[in-house]
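ligand=oxalic acid
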Amino acid sequence: MATLTQNPNVNKWVEEMIALTKPEKVVWIDGSEAQLEALREEACATGEMIKLNQELLPDCYYHRTLPNDVARVEDRTFICSRNKEDAGPTNNWCDPKEMYAKLTPMYDGSMKGRTMYVIPYSMGPIGSDLAKVGVEVTDSIYVVLNMAIMTRVGVKAFENLGDTSNDFVRGLHAKCDVDPEKRYIVQFPEDNTIWSINSAYGGNVLLGKKCFALRIASYQGKNEGWMAEHMLILGLEKPNGEVKYITAAFPSACGKTNLAMLIPPEGYIKNGYKVWTVGDDIAWLKPGEDGRLYAINPENGFFGVAPGTNENSNYNALASTKKGTIFTNVAINNDNMTVWWEKLDKNPPVNATEWKGARVNGPEYVAEGNKLAHPNSRFTAPAENCPCISKEFNNPKGVPVSAIIFGGRRAKTAPLVYQSFDWQHGTFVGSIMASETTAAATGAVGVVRRDPMAMLPFCGYHMGDYWAHWLEMGKVLGDKAPKIFNVNWFRTDDDGNFVWPGFGDNMRVLDWIIDRCEGEVDAVETAIGYEPKPEDINVEGLDGITTETIADLLSVDNNLWLEETKGIEEFYAKFGDKLPKELSCELEALKARLAK
Ligand code: OXD
Ligand code: MN
């Protein structure tokens, strides 16, 4: 098919990619349903995808990746800026010339006898000033079909780019032999370019997501005065119909998708509170004409972890997967061609195919300690399926942000919630974000892993410069800046049990946060920030949680925090001169307050 754009920059680059990879055929993805349907049929004919029960799961498909290719590969992910210093101590770096020289022969002729798909896509609503265009070339139909859910693909993406602009992200993906030894996920921020090779797993190959919308976009945001963050976006509707927007950053496995799609406790629903989802993973944030910070979700779907998702843990996420969804590496129930994963329900299918493709007796297989679905198995679901999708989801202006929340999994140190003193202190709070490893993961339990702003694997440049950019944005926003908070849903009692129920009840904390933003509730000043008075957290209808429990959850142990400051100091030392002095001042000020 001929090119879909007059834009000479796009056409020239696609020609170069064709010359490099030498495909037999080139197909431009126009975004039409007819073209996508033909690709689905082709993928089912070759076995790349399996059609699921079209009555129970209309337009849903199944895909299995190789067992060596089931997750993002941080050790093979590179930021290739011209100067090593610009990638910083938290990224793998290689000289771009060297990396191009290493990968070019691997791509050379890699699509011989195969089809190259050229996918134009928009990150963000078409027509939005905050949106950006990417073009991904790939030899995988699975990538095309996932990108068609996760982004806005097709001719319409070129509307945002126009006929002359050169501002598009060039993504090259080739599956090759899916050889883990030759797998590379490479960002060239100064060239607006991403090269991904030898993987066919979502996070490594859906180049609009982590590679563009976080790594490349964070770098673009620094240069252009906006921010790309690993944050959910939700709207909290109050009984008077007003909606206040919150963004929140958590490291993985801390419940970002669950918070984004929260169902409030009964009492709140009765009083007219609602939660609306704008995004579950990524936010692009930019000051609007009125000086406030506005957020869009650059994505158009959810690439969610399936295991653990069920009617109770996340009704809205589960409902989102009931049509038009691609499931990757979950288990199949062969009796009715539906899907299953751990904790979906208590009934593993008897006639099952586990994620690697073996036919097994599900209950027996599980009883032997095996997993039917891979722990990182995924659903790719259209955002429009979500019962609580915000009506502002496609608003090109985005939504005005009242509060930014940071959080992690901490057994003792961090209280249920606290508010930073101001934006600079809030930047400090984000920079010291950390999570403790759990028994569920391999390695030692309770080890603190620093993950500033949940951006450790996703910041496309030097983390010290990234913090400086945060501080700069605070100056631009001035008194219109969102208020910054920290939450911890994971405090444990002496027996190691979680004290706070989490899930829908997190609404009670969001409620206090919004009241703080509106100036409707007082707070207590502590060494680490402003905390609620325990009685200001609504515990009505909570089983076994009283205002005393809340007081416990809010307690700050000065000794533990002094210990914590040592860990922060060690972490900060990595950043040398690039650590903004404002942050070292904040650390000193914290130490002084704790010592009092
Ligand atoms: C994701 C991740 O898949 O953060 O969203 O790893
Ligand atoms: Mn994520």
